[in-house]
Amino acid sequence: MKSGDAVAERQTAGVEPGPPGSALEVSTLRTGEQLEAAARLLWAVWEARTAAERTQVISTSMLRTLAHTGNYVAGAFLGEQMIGCTVGFLETGSGQVNSLHSHITGVHQPERNRGTGFALKRHQRQWALENGLDLVTWTFDPLVSRNAYFNLCKLGGTVTDYRPDFYGQMDDGANTGDRTDRLLVEWTLRAEWVERAMDNDDPGLRRHASVEPGAELIAVPEDIGLLRQTDPLQALNERFAVRDRFLSLFAEGYRVVGMTRTREYVLLPHDRIASYE
């Protein structure tokens, strides 16, 4: 959540193949059985064990409602087995639907880093374009480095804001006991840098090249999930340190332009970003 080949990009968003040589297929979900499987998968990914935790993640009835009302609910399949799913709802602005908000995406643990997440996002992008949308938005935890690298470097997403404790207290298993700080992301689907990122054509610093003079870096833990388990106090200290750095640099006009391979966000002054892109 990998290879964006031109042939796959031309497929319709009904059923889309996964990486070359893979039996993976992505399709929208419609049946009650599919939606129940999607809910169970997301509960497992979020380690939601109780009924209350599962409701915090998402309910089967909510998935049914979203699918029924024309929103985006899709699953990734290996044969008959669902190994990933993604859910989004349509956003409105000025009285018109103008973007898709990608609410939640999960991949079964053994299938991570095998192209499943990328295939889901590629299908989501194609679905949005076919429905007349040019923008997808979502949020992610700034301390989860693998998601940050994927969102910025593999998809070409753009960070637009930092929101402290965005969702408030969440007792969903994965986020229980932690602050829900989030980075807001915009995915401008027709942008050149998005096309190049999806085609794995590195456009430079925006992805993970050498750091330019004047850039500021924000480092995050290698594995915040493990740190939460082994040293909760240090994990919380990391949260506040990263929050302070982001808010301070954003207030000074810096914006995120990429991430290094060593888990450091790269930020440049706002007036240098336009010429850089």
Low-confidence stretches: 1-13
Evaluate the radius of gyration.
18 Å
Number of helices: 10
Largest sheet: 8 strands, mixed
Query: What is the number of E strands?
Result: 11
Helical proportion, percent range: 25-40%
What is the average of the pLDDT values? 84
**SSE ordering:** HEEHHHEEEHEHEEHEHHEEH
Strand content: 25-35%
Q: Kindly name the structural category.
A: alpha+beta
Fold blueprint:
Elements: H1 6-9, E1 15-17, E2 24-28, H2 32-45, H3 51-57, H4 60-68, E3 72-78, E4 81-93, E5 96-107, H5 116-130, E6 135-140, H6 145-154, E7 158-163, E8 182-188, H7 192-198, E9 216-219, H8 224-230, H9 232-251, E10 254-259, E11 264-269, H10 270-276
Task: Describe what you observe in this structure.
This protein has 10 helices and 11 strands. It is of the alpha+beta class. The N terminus is likely disordered. The strands form 2 sheets. An 8-stranded mixed sheet has the order 1-2-3-4-5-6-8-7, sandwiched between helices. A 3-stranded antiparallel sheet has the order 9-11-10.
